[in-house]
Amino acid sequence: MGIPLPGEFGERARAILAGRLAPVAARDAATVIVLRDDPLEVYLLRRKATMAFAAGAYVFPGGSVDPRDDSHAVAWAGPSPAEWGELLRAEEKTARGLVCAAVRETFEESGVLLAGPTEDTIAADTTGWDAEREALIDRSLSFVDFLNGKGLVLRSDLLKPWGHWITPEVEYRRFDTRFFVAALPYGQRTRDVGGEADSVAWMRPQEALDLAKSGEIAMLPPTLHTLREMAGFEAIAAVFANDRKIVTVMPRVVEVDGEMRLDVSG
C-alpha cells in the first residue's frame, strides 16, 4: 500500500510519525487547470530539472500566494472574496489571496490573463505585456499594481474551484494548494513564458495519463488524480456544469511491515 519512502525520507517520515520531528508548515498556493475545447485539452508545463520542488514533473500553472495578493485595491468582478471564502472554506483574506494568486500565476506561467477592461469583458491579447509579466515573476511588480496600471478588472467568475491538496508532512517544502479550472479565453493563446518551465504542451487528459503510465513523463499524485477526473469530460461546459464537492486530500505517512510508505489515497 502506498509509495515506499526509502533512505532519508523514510527516516524523516518515521521521526514525524513518532512526534520527534515537526513537519514544515504548508504555504498557501493556487493551481489552475487551463482548458480548451475540440477536443478537450489541458495545458501542462514541465518544471525545470533544477527546481527545488517537483523537478522535471509536468504540472498545471500555479504557485505560492504572494503576500500582496490579498490587497483590497484589486478591481474585482464575479463572486466576492467573501463568497470565495465559503467556496474554499477559508477566511475572506485567504480566499482573496488565493484567487488573485490563481490569476497571477496563470498569467506568469502561460500568458493567459483572466482579467479585462470591464467586469464583463476580457483582455483579447496579452502578448505585448511580457515586460510586466517578467516583473511579476521576479516580484518587482505586484499583481494589483499591474492590474491597476493597465486599468484591468480581475474576473473571478472565470474560475471554478476544483480541488484541495496539501503536501505530505514528510516533504521539506509543503503547500496548501487550492485547484481551480478555467477556460482559455477567446482571442488569447498560451506560450512558453514561465521562468520555472523548460517545456509546455496541450494534451488530452487521457493522453497525458498514458504518457505518465508508460514512464515517458513524470507527474505528482495531485496532477494524475486531476487528469483522471478531467478525462471523464468531453467539453469545458461539462466541467463547469459539474456539481463539484471540494474534498481536502493530504497523503499521509504510514508504516507497513516496518517500511515507511506514503498513502496517496487520501
TrEMBL record:
Listed InterPro entries: NUDIX_hydrolase-like_dom_sf, NUDIX_hydrolase_dom, NUDT19
Positions of the Nudix hydrolase domain: 25-225
A single MF term (Gene Ontology): hydrolase activity, acting on acid anhydrides, in phosphorus-containing anhydrides
Named cofactor requirement(s): Mn(2+); Mg(2+)
Keywords per UniProt: Hydrolase, Magnesium, Manganese, Metal-binding
Protein name: Nudix hydrolase domain-containing protein
